[in-house]
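Reader question, answered in our methods column.
A reader sent in the components of a multi-part assembly and asked whether the whole thing could be modeled at once rather than chain by chain. We filled in our standard form and ran it. Here is what they sent:
COMPLEX SIZE: two components
ENTRIES:
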Amino acid sequence: MDELVQVLMTYDWGGGRGALAGITKRVAQVHGNPDDRDRLEGQLLLALESGAPLPAKEFVCRQLAIIGTARSVPALGRMLAAAATSDMARMALEQIPGPEAGAVLREALPKLSGLPRSGVAASLGQRRDAAAVGALCELLTGDDDVAAEVAAQALGQVAGARAAEGLARAQGETSGRVRRAILDARLRCADQYAAHGKREEAQGVYAALREGSMPEPIREAAAVGLKKMAKGATS
Amino acid sequence: MKPTRTGKASTASKVTRRGFLGTAAGAVAAPLIIPASARGADGHVAPSNRITIGQVGRGIMGRGHLQRLIYDPKVQVLALCEVDRTRLKDGRGQVEDVYGEGQPGGTYKGFSGYSDFRELLARDDIDAVVVVTPDHWHTPISIQAAKAGKDIYCEKPNSITIQQGRRLVEAVQRYGRVFQNGSQYRSAPTIRRVCDFVRRGGLGKIKSVFTIWGGAGTPNPSITLDYALKGEPTPEWLDWDMWVGPAQGRPYNPAYHRNPIPGVVPWAFCEDFGVGASTGYHSHAADVIQYALGYEESGPVDIIHPSSGEFPTLTYRYANGTLFHLVGGWDQVKRLYHAVPDDARLAGSFGGLFVGERGWLTSMTGGGPIEGAPESLFDELGLPSRNVNLGENDHYPNWLECIKTREKPHSFEEIGHRAAALGHLTMICYKLGRSLKWDPDREVFLGDDQANRMLRRASRAPWNITA
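And here is the structure of the entire assembly that came back:
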């Protein structure tokens, strides 16, 4: 095992950062060199799957966010269920390109509860994972309000017709912060419709959000959207 | 050069809030007995016409913001949110002492304290919020404030990553809010006049600009790090989980949190909480300089690392060829770049030195009068005084006025984002140790996947930063 990685594996709260500096330098140096990148990724995975302290694993995840590939996804996926490691794993999984990271997040979502579930829902939104729309919609009306709020935010990021429909359906069954997040997500869907030239769909959502029963900021934002669309049509 | 935007934010929510306050003022916001001065007898603004404010955060900077706000007759501070109960108590005392003057028994009852900013944002009677938290909370709270229909004054830097900053711009614009970035140096009359002069071509084409970045040009540049300080027992008066918020979780250590006075805020050097030199001064300098260059809504196209050998210190190149050099100290301008005469004083911070075809000018604060040459430039500039008096800045009045007119303030969301983004670009360049090409329109690095993966960072559950 690489000497720096061996030292890294002892890094704990309050520990020296010498090995970390060496590894961050090496991460930068493997840019444009896939063989070196693969070797370094392999070394980092050894640390990740070892009994190293959490700060060491968190540091590894930060590096995998920059250089990680599909090869790292299984190990990161195994960290999603535990509250102590779920957030750090998502740091890398949100950044790793390719379908594997999205797949492992989608597979994990229905098996999780509590904060790890909310976190994974957020990551799917950040990745704009259209394949996750169905699972995210299910969270909207579940008994976990925190997860429902995050799922609404994620659906707003993914947007598209299926997300817009799911959000509209769930709106009437929700209240409080979840409903507000759904309304906000619907705005984002309308914005995306408008950005893609789907004027009729956008106008429909904006009009619904302009109704008098809507919270004032939502009505106002819908008016901004309509005004922006009208301006776009005349310019 | 991109023109500064002049579009208006939206107006609808003002009517609603005023109506609410008009009918329910005694219950939630205004003094129990309204003094004559507050009714407008002495030219003061009546409570129903004041802009109602909630402030989030009361550390070193927060104390100053609160002090400024409670003596402003155009505003009424209704609430403060602070996760540190000792600070919340101090802030309550600060407000109630001032607002209690002239009240029966010297007491004031219209102020509320919170430890969760979402409760403050849920109040319909608050028009606007001032965000004065550690950096990692700037974007999430500002976005939530925009979604709650509040106008926003946010301390700089707006964000801790470039993507966060873009999300903030999107949310502010989606909800039609008035946003002022806390970069008040551009609003000091002397600095503004210098910047306008440079922007209008008073120095001719700008060849180079200089400002300070601690450690620039040395082997140990000032960048933030993933500190993992040893855990200590969390004080009972602090909601540490909320303090950490969307950042990666870590045990409490007072070095993250407590501010030495006077001194720098320690959290600024931990990459989850702050942006190091950008937090301290570079975001101010970036704002002033990009304003003068006409790139305040854009950015450089190259970030050139000193290892390239092209320049001795990290340098930005803008599309028009202007070079913006970071230096570790002002002596490097003379010693490494020979850009000004040896007898140039060069001192201060929060601005920069412009070198153009027709001469050179400074725009720093805290280092004495504006310098430049040839002397004839000052005849053209027509400065009433070369001294920089930051106290004369109209940054807050400009924001408060824009809340009423719905115009864009001096340093609106896009400008604030671009100033912060320059610091983030610097940090990424230093961390990767190589030059980078940047597309300021699409906000992506060209040909560098690693750098692009540093544009954003995942949030700790359940926080999720979305526009």
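What stands out: Chain B touches chain A at residues 10, 12-13, 16, 118, 147-149, 173-176, 225-231, 248-251, 431-434, 448-450, 453-454, 456-464, 466-467 (CB under 8 Å). The two ends of chain B are 27 Å apart (CA to CA).
Send us your own complexes using the same form.
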